[in-house]
Amino acid sequence: MDRHYFVTRMPDEPGTLHQAAKIVWRHGGNIERIHFDRRIDRHTVFFEVECDERMYLIIEEGLKEIGYIRTEVPEPAFVRFRVKLPNVPGALLSLLEDVTLSDSNIAFLEFDARDVERMLTVSLTLEDSSRAKELLEALQSHHPVEILEHATTGDRLDDTVFYLRFAQELRGLLPPGDDGFVLRLLGKINHIVQDLQGRGEEPEVTFESILCMGRALLSSRGPGFHCDVQTVNMGDAKLHCLQMPCGGNVSIIEGRSGTLMVDSGFGIYHEGLRQAMNHLGIDQIDHILQTHGDDDHSGGARFLDSNIHASRETVELMAQANRAHGSPLEDSVLEEVYTTLIHLFSDYAPPMNVETWPEADDGLCHGLGVMDRTLLCDEQVWVLRGLDGHQIG
User: Fold this and answer.
1) 17 and 92 co-located in one domain
2) What is the pLDDT along the chain (393 residues), one digit of tens a residue?
3) Which domain holds residue 314?
4) How many domains does the chain have?
5) Which of 65, 86, 106 is the last residue of a domain?
6) Residue 157, domain member (yes or no)
């Protein structure tokens, strides 16, 4: 039996959860986890169901038939307007009927009959921006409405559409793809939200920091790319140290008979790295020595036609696509999702064919085990085993 995520959109009315659970039960599914928090999203409910693949598809179809399964990520909207209410019974009721039909969530409402102009101010959040135009047309056909604000992004979209806000921002940072991937990712993101809330932490803060990293990477590639370079002469060799915009230093050693690179930086910077190499008069990297498997150190290796060297543990970590591999946090959903998103943001392209260092230690150097002593580009290279404090390998 496997666990499957369901991202559902349920009507805000009694009995909906009961109806969904009945479909899962009817087809032999066992609900292992469920999460709903009206404070951050009044319609989105997450299920994690244990069942086989065939039953999963049947349950999904059953939920689709009653309109509970999300198949795409709608674009939420925020609308703020003022309307003059006539001084007759039922005037507010008529307006609220239009609001209800549009499936809007009232974020702010203010009216006082003592106001001579009898103006009602309303702020609404809509899950689907396509309904906003429909709502405004309906309101304007019945009432003299003044639109004060209409937005589909930003902070004005309140936390009652948290998942949709996050999905929209995420989609703007990722390569083009289908909504199915984003919805599957939302299932894991909800898992993290539940864990963070259980520890008394704010999920919005955590995910904003991840989005911030994505924005920084995208804005610092191409025309926004820059790097600081220091060059040190070392006898017959020359060392160039390149500091990339969002981290991940790249070191290039021009040896007596070739060029070595220590770490390859974020994949998203591969064009900028090429330009920096051209500026230094370097057109070929013969060997890349990977210190560890983080995106900012190994993410650009596949863009360079070079011999790649790394430890066995680093190769395993890159294959697992989880930066927490081999640590106590390996089973953390947050670490898994963070790795997935940073891979996507940074155009992660780790090496495919890697020559691993020997397993046996060959003595000590300053308290660290010597994994290998080898000659690369006529330069003597000593490979020291790390202590795995930062990351395995």
Assistant:
1) no
2) 788 878 888 887 888 889 999 999 999 999 988 888 776 677 788 888 999 999 999 999 999 888 888 777 667 777 788 888 888 888 788 778 877 777 777 778 888 777 777 888 888 777 777 777 777 777 777 777 787 777 665 454 445 556 766 777 787 787 776 677 777 777 778 878 878 878 888 888 888 888 899 999 999 999 999 999 999 998 889 999 999 999 889 999 999 899 999 999 999 999 999 999 999 999 999 999 999 999 999 999 999 989 999 999 999 999 988 888 988 888 888 888 888 889 989 999 988 889 999 877 778 998 889 999 999 998 889 999 888 888 888
3) 225-384
4) 4
5) 65
6) no
Helix, strand, coil percentages for the chain (3-state, nearest 5): 35, 25, 35
Residues 311 and 285 in one domain: yes
How is the beta sheet containing 2-9 ordered, strand by strand?
2-9, 44-51, 30-35
Q: In Å, how far are 81, 95, 146 from 140, measured between CA atoms?
A: 11, 10, 9
Residue that finishes a domain, picked among 127, 151, 175: 151
Q: How far apart are the first and last CA of the chain?
A: 33
On whether residue 137 sits in a domain, the answer given is yes
Which pTM does this prediction carry?
0.71
Instruction: Tokens 């702020």: give the residue.
Output: 123
